[in-house]
């Protein structure tokens, strides 16, 4: 029973660690998307900026 409890604690810790990693990754991608959306909105309102921006970045 003791080994089972230790394994459960280990598994829970691993799960939480993976969740934190996934959350960080998702937040990073969301921030990247927010930045891209901001640039797109600015380009939409000022088409003359298009020549200065590489939209593929």
TrEMBL record:
Superkingdom of source: Eukaryota
PANTHER family named among the record's database cross-references: RING FINGER PROTEIN 17 (PTHR16442)
Identification of the protein by name: Uncharacterized protein
Annotated source species: Marmota monax
